[in-house]
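Pilot study result, target chain (436 residues):
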Amino acid sequence: MRMSPCKTVTPDEAVKVIKSGDHIHLSSVASSPQCLVAAMCRRGRAGELDNVHIHHLHTEGPAPYADPEFEGIFQLNSFFVGSNVRRHTQQGYADYIPVFLGETQRLYREGYLPCHVVMLQVCPPDEQGIVSLGTSVDATLAAMEVAETVIAVINPNVPRTYGDALISIDKIDIFVEDDTPLETVHFPKPDATEEAIGRHCAALIDDGATLQLGIGAIPNAVLNQLAGHKNLGIHTEMFADGVIGLVEKGVINGADKVIDPGKMVATFLLGSKQLYDYTHRNKHVLMKDVGYTNDPFIIAKNPKVTAINSALQIDLTGQICADSLGTQFYSGVGGQIDFFYGASRSPGGRAIVAMPSVTDKGVSKIAPVLLPGAGVVTTRAHTHWLVTEFGAVNLYGRSLQERARLIISVANPLHQEALDRAAFERFGSHYYFMHK
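Predicted structure:
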């Protein structure tokens, strides 16, 4: 029986529905329901649960269920390795399911993963009994469709966003009240290297382009360079504070988009409280199921889709590793291939991987070969534009030897000689003959 939205229970009462062996889905990123997580962990410490499986995209804030103390009690199998569970995943206390971000919803809808309980956050209901998932739609709708029980935290800090975020209270079984602020992230000001990368990326963005940007300083550096552009649109898996100023200046207006014109489309948000306040009741923000935002064939319907993503390492043939450092998982597949493929099919689209040429320790991120155990997230065939602080090169349609020469040209000069030597050893004397 579904409960009235006026009747709420405590977090400890709500999580009593969880049984040993259950699979739990948590809403993700800024909107992880921390009061329910804490209550669930209290049950775990009391010896009331074992072998409970937890699934989510990356989350911000505490993730205590991944701690070694809960081994055998909770098993995290995440769809993306966030910083809060990275060490535990690398140590084997948590695990990771490699999956394209756009297909995370299929794991539930097509029965690859069961879902017994969904725990999420929503804004207060309106007069019609409609609530909003706010900053995180992602795979949560799919989980709700197949779950036995849905627990919702009604939180006034959750913005009322539109699109697929709007759901009826009839879809919810148990209500909890909490007013804990959503998790926020304040990205640092881009440094000189990131600003240079931003300039090179911005030069590849045409007026009227539809943008997909990832998380961090480089996307912000790109946005900082776009004040002179016109009629840009947003169709992305996420956006942060950097878009707000460009919307207010009229640079981002979605006027040239073919699908969802005038709307900024995303499946989750991450940034400051200002961002969350900005999206509250904002008709220009459309929060959609991840199966929509990350479908390459939907992405490709918009013109000039420009997808900018990062990498941990790239080899001399254009293979991109974005999820691991050798055998140590660092993040996840995410939506890189979703958007690279979509952008490559878009009329006038560009797929860009942007990264500093070296790590913080001065190690070249451009390597003769990927580290042993490194995963290829983006294949040679999917890789088009590569941008570092030293320039931008287009690898599409280039041979292996041509690619090597172009990739080396945007490597850190301190490493170019060694990379050139490695290319010669790999391709033979013909490499020098063809490219001298």
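One observation from the pilot: The domain at 11-177 is CATH 3.40.1080.10 (Glutaconate Coenzyme A-transferase). A full batch analysis is planned for the follow-on phase.
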